[in-house]
Amino acid sequence: MRGVFLKIYLAFMVTALVTTAVTITLAAYYRQWSNDSVNLIAPTGGYISAAELILQQGGEPLLLEWLLRFERHPSVNAYVFDDQGLSLLPDPPATVVSYALSAESYEAQVSPLSRSEILVKAPIESAGGRVYLLVVEFMHPLVVFNLPAYLGWGLLASFLIFAVWSLILSGYLTRPVRFMQKTVQAFASGDWHARMDPRSLRRRDELGELSREFNHMAGYIERLIHDQKQLVSDVSHELRSPLARSTVALELARLDAVPDQEEHLDRIELETQRLNEMIEDLLNMAKLDAQQDHSHWSDVHCDNVLQQVVDDARFEHPDSEVNLTLGEGLPVIFGDRKLMKSAFENITRNALLHTQEGTSVDLSARMKNGLIRVVIRDHGPGVPEDKLNDLLRPFVRAESARERLGQGHRGFGLGLAIAHRVVSHHRGQITLRNHRDGGLMVTIDLPPAG
């Protein structure tokens, strides 16, 4: 979103600065293009008559006094040159001298970008017949206002005004897009009730149409997901009853069974137990997906939960080695203790299932970049790189897990999926990767409370 905001902001700024430059250029050439210079030249006839009259009545001293008073005019100056080409006023501008001494006719000179915007010259004659040359200079208005300072302060003021205005306008234009981005992120994070702001829905432009289309899509997806979860939950509940009856029937069959049938009855019992475990996992997943109430959450000590998981694993697998390393000063986590324990248990059981005989399962917890990082690693064959991300989806297993199903182990591909949902439920992240020395390493990053 910052890229879109910056592009819009720069577009406004460039447009504003170009407009300012064009305005200044038009202002500089205004007199020439609007023929206003003709209106300025017209009054010079009065200046010429006045200068000649003063020269004839009072000579050079009175004319010099008149020139000195004339210099006080902010935008018009007058200069007189004698028949030797010398100015009665000291240090006249070079442009005035050049124009006065030029051999051209008495045509006015118009220079829209120079200090002397308009120069007009005319001869005046004294009472003794001596001829003088009067030059009237109309200065450019920008020069009167001190052109460098005028341009500098004008550009600075324009930049500041347009910068603030562009910032406000860019923020106004991108605000609905930013809200849409937050809504989409919330929806993608599992908040299926996230919808666009009603103000965006009332818009009559493309953004309003996009908001309405998103709400329609979000409602349709929410219904699909709800129906899917409800179907899984209903089917799982409905399967409980026939499985319970099958278990009773199995026990009754054992009463009349002969020794040759025991092996088949044991196999039926094992498969029934697996079905019960799978249904339990499915119900847990459905319950976790539907759970939105956090009122029962509390501070959870991650080290205590991990210690309990390790103690249970050592009790269930006395022949396996389970190691736990805890960092100092681990903060608490705000969440559901039971759910977190089930997530750690599922990952630890998965690690115990796949670790090589005679190797250990290693658990550790420490602070990393402001998050509590829990790492659970086995020393098994690992997982193909192209299947690592798929393991977090339900009913996806590595080939090595399938090979062990005949050995009495659980393996429905739900353990890591449940752990993934629990971690996401607590605003955490779970990643899988193969350790460089072999085995699968599961990394869990959880935000501390507060």
Automatic annotation (TrEMBL):
Coiled coil: none annotated. PANTHER family: SENSOR PROTEIN CREC (PTHR44936), SENSOR PROTEIN RSTB (PTHR44936:SF10). Its EC number is 2.7.13.3. It comes from Thalassolituus maritimus. It is an enzyme of class 2 (transferase). It is found in: Cell membrane. Residues 171-226 form the HAMP domain. It catalyses: ATP + protein L-histidine = ADP + protein N-phospho-L-histidine. One of its GO terms (cellular component) is plasma membrane. It comes from the Bacteria. This is histidine kinase. Keywords: ATP-binding, Cell membrane, Kinase, Membrane, Nucleotide-binding, Phosphoprotein, Transferase, Transmembrane, Transmembrane helix. Gene3D superfamilies: 1.10.287.130, 6.10.340.10, Histidine kinase-like ATPase, C-terminal domain. Residues 234-450 form the Histidine kinase domain. The chain crosses the membrane at residues 6-30, 155-173. It is a multi-pass membrane protein. One of its GO terms (molecular function) is ATP binding. The keyword Transmembrane helix applies. It holds the Pfam family HAMP.
